[in-house]
Amino acid sequence: MAGELEIENISRETIKPSSPTPNHLRNFKLSFLDQIAPVMYTPIVLFYSQNGDSDHPGEAAKMCQCLKTSLSKILTLFYPFAGRFKDHASIECNDDGADFLEAQVICRLSDIPRQPNANNLRTFLPIEIESMEAVTNILLCVQASFFECGGMPIEVQIIPHPEFLTASVFPPKDPPMLPLPFPPGNCKTRTRRFVFTASKIAALKAKAAGACVQQPSRVEAVTLLIWKCSMIAISKTTVRGCPRLSQATHAVNLRKWTRRPMAANCVGN
């Protein structure tokens, strides 16, 4: 697909829970991990092909209404996502709701390659990942977009803080800790996608093995390669005669490492 995707916004509205949140659940405490996590949206885009008469003029409206109804019911169960941040220690579950947007994609689903450009995929997102709305406004945003062929991508952006279990496992700090810094939206950023075959990863693991780490994991081996290449590139530039400071971060699943077992389907980390 040549050029950038063009998406036309049609509507935006707030969807509230189908039932009010009980008073005893109105204040949701964040865990220590939630407090230090960067406040940003975690996005997911799900693509659906045309099904039957999904390109019928009235079908899009019916699907949108079905999604709105489902979202309203879901917010009753996952009530923190209909609330707002009160401070760095809690979420006020005030039923303010989540945002639902409808948009039109000016192309066909078949125009999207199987391995699309990451920057093109960001076009589907209704809110920038690093948007300040993550701090001051909604915790959950859903967008239903429609291709000219009748196909539909559903975009979900969520603040993955409410974990529902870990405030007792990782008690919050008092006073609350400030989140870790994250590059602001006006910084120049690049997104790249690397594909490694199983044989290449096996070769990387063998090459990375040493006295300190005899059996490196796949993540460790690939991270080592990317970090090594990054450092070679960075070494060619300096800031006021000094090497540029660099930082690497990983999202890690901590569920299986806690003493108190955490459900695999709990929200957040």
From TrEMBL:
It comes from the Eukaryota. This is Uncharacterized protein. Gene3D superfamilies: Chloramphenicol acetyltransferase-like domain (3.30.559.10). The keyword Ribonucleoprotein does not apply. Keywords: Acyltransferase, Transferase. Belongs to the plant acyltransferase family. It comes from Citrus sinensis (Sweet orange). GO terms for molecular function: acyltransferase activity. The keyword Phosphoprotein does not apply. It holds the Pfam family Transferase.
